[in-house]
Amino acid sequence: MKGAYLIAQTPAQAQSQKVADDYLVQAKALHEKPGSEQEVIRLTSQVLALTESADAYFYRGYARSESGDMQGAIDDFNQYITINPKKASAYSNRGIAKFKFGDEQGSLEDFNIAITLDPEYDDAYSNRCNVKSILGDNQGAISDSNQAIAINAQFAGAYLNRGNAKSTSGD
Length: 171
Description:
By secondary structure, this protein is mainly alpha-helical. It contains nine helices and no strands. The radius of gyration is 19 Å and the shape is elongated. 40% of the residues are buried.
């Protein structure tokens, strides 16, 4: 094949990649388990010490957000987005971290991007609803909740968010 090159790994590089892959598998298995955030951060940091990994940034960002390190979470989601700019959940998770950090406008922008990338992403609509409510846009919040419910009629949080927005608007 003209112009194609095979880049060979040394045995040490192959072993390093295998170790990184093993750490990442462990981190993925733990990432939504309550109380495991520090272990996920440790494992994904080890992955990143060995190799560049979008997934390691994503899982570490999620764990940092869950453990209260919003700036660290935002930094990790920024890295993930640099590597993989078309992943709606990365923007949504960064939006959550920005919201918790007090950056409502930044979080709103991230939820908008997530929805643009994946118009069927019910969580992004629900999260944007919460930001719109905080910013006083109750009609926009209700509209976002309605959209989340249209996508997933079983999404209880969207009904709760819609009820809160209606209550705040006096409806």
